[in-house]
Amino acid sequence: MAQKPNIPKGTRDFGPLEMARRNYIFSTIRSVFALYGFQQIETPSMELMSTLMGKYGEEGDKLLFRILNSGEKANEAPEKGLRYDLTVPFARYIVQHREEIAFPFRRYQIQPVWRADRPQKGRYREFYQCDVDVIGTDSLVSELELIQIVEEVYKRLGIRVCLHLNNRKILAGIAEFIGAPDKIIDITTAIDKLDKIGLDNVNKELSERGLSNDAIAKLQPILALQGSNDEKLATIADLLKANEIGSKGVEETRTVLDLAKDQTLPIELDLTLARGLNYYTGTIFEVKALDAQIGSITGGGRYDNLTGIFGLPNVSGVGISFGADRIYDVLTELNLYPASMLDATQILFAAFGDDELRYALKWAKQLREANIRVEVYPEPAKMKKQMSYADAKAIPFVAIVGGNEMQSNTVMLKNMTTGEQTQVTIEQLINKL
């Protein structure tokens, strides 16, 4: 007996229902991006390893999928890899095409990415990201627009969310405050896991990464800081008042919160938010669903010199990424998909014989010209079989073609929900549907 075929762990097949749901997510996000003047680009699925390596931090680099070249030996370093995210390829795109671009450049990108991660709920090895970025300006108005985009996308999807906000400059200031400025990457990598592994394990990891007991102790009140955004900002501003980079981060955060004060979206200053990617330098965001336990469903931040790695220094950008697969899981869990999202068949033509089938094909063409979604059962099978097919696909109406009705351009229309049958002309059928 042949072995049942399967797919790699961390990947999924998507049938018609799943695709309808995914397309609903993509079209909703795409329409909001367009409202703000963003234009779409695409980049290749694979990039050179020299483009990818060193941009995602120590742990991110381990999750890169390497691609062996044809004829390459397994112990040779691959020169290509599947993209880990859309931001680094975007920075490479900016540098490569800078002569064709008017700055500030507003782009969005909806494509799959790959990570050699351990598959679990809400975490896949192949998944889609929906990115939107502004590059070529350091104005914090761009942060406001991203917050507005988050609010509008989730309002349209019907998901209640909270946006968590921090600034990498604040985190750099905290690292200096606790006496460990050279450990900023270790600190952010560890505290970024606070929600996942808890405070005790974060402290254990900080110790393993070489932080002194005194530095870890000084960090605890900051990690436990509670209160309103203004109260937390005032406390951290006082702690970092003698610290130049930390104070700058506080001021940027205060400006963003002030710009966003009229938004109805809940915004929480979260000083434990770190986002482990090395390229962030300013504001960082994460968005979490309030009614589903699934982790971050949107995240991003400002990067001041990502293009500098590729030879174009001092170009600031900011962006966010919507995790389509996690959004899919939240919408499914909360049963928030609208019934109208399915571009399903509206009517099936069922024919008794070959002559009737020819009439069905002709009339189906008329209906399609009227923008009605139609199927014709491809053979004059037993009527019970054709009706069972309509039931299985939840097609609401069946037009039965047969007998003398053909000569008068009429069919017997069956409502598959009520079972009611009425004789109608093709013109009446078009009007009805």
Features:
433 residues; alpha+beta; eight-stranded mixed β-sheet; BirA Bifunctional Protein, domain 2; 40% helix; elongated; 15 helices; Rossmann fold; five-stranded mixed β-sheet; 2 domains
CATH level-3 fold name of the largest domain: BirA Bifunctional Protein, domain 2
- Give the CATH superfamily of the largest domain: Bira Bifunctional Protein, Domain 2
Computed over alpha carbons, the radius of gyration is 28 Å
Quaternary structure of the protein: single chain
E-strand count: 16
N-end to C-end Cα span: 48 Å
**What is the topology, as strand order, of the major beta sheet?**
1-5-6-11-10-9-7-8
Binned strand content:
15-25%
What kind of sheet is the major sheet? 8 strands, mixed
Structural class: alpha+beta
| Overall form | elongated
Helix content: 25-40%
CATH 2nd-level architecture of the largest domain: 2-Layer Sandwich
Question: What can you tell me about this protein's structure?
Answer:
The protein has 433 residues and is an alpha+beta fold. The chain has 2 domains: 16-334, BirA Bifunctional Protein, domain 2 (2-Layer Sandwich); 344-432, Rossmann fold (3-Layer(aba) Sandwich). It has 15 helices and 16 strands. The strands form 3 sheets. The protein has an 8-stranded mixed β-sheet with strand order 1-5-6-11-10-9-7-8. Strands 13-12-14-15-16 form a 5-stranded mixed β-sheet, sandwiched between helices. A 3-stranded antiparallel β-sheet has the order 2-4-3. Helix 6 packs antiparallel against helix 11.
